[in-house]
Amino acid sequence: MEIQWQKSSFSTDAEGNCLELARVGDEVLLRESDNGDVIVRTSRQKLLAFLQGAQAGEFDALAK
Q1: What share of the chain has pLDDT > 70, as a percent?
Q2: Which of the listed ranges 1-5, 8-12, 29-33, 42-46 does the model predict with the highest average pLDDT?
Q3: Rounded CA gap, 18 and 16, in Å?
Q4: What 8-state DSSP symbol labels residue 51?
């Protein structure tokens, strides 16, 4: 089975720092496009909690 990876429209190939996601069964897989051998697996519920936290600005200090 081939995994169908999706990346954000905010990412460009020129930057070389794309985060890609894929859904396989009940899991969500995450990887960096420039280091595709390292894959993080999580649940949809945990990813949703993270995305809600990111939208609320909970992680803004980490990006500065």
Answers
A1: 91
A2: 42-46
A3: 6
A4: H
Cα 15 from Cα 23, distance rounded (Å): 24
Rounded Cα–Cα distance for residues 16 and 35 (Å): 10
**Could you tell me the pTM of the whole model?**
0.78
How many helices, marked H, and strands, marked E, lie in the chain? 1, 4
DSSP E strands in 1-64: the ranges are 6-7, 19-24, 27-32, 35-43
Contacts of 36 (CB under 8 A, 6+ apart): 20
11-41 pLDDT, tens digit per residue, is 766 666 788 999 999 999 999 888 889 999 9
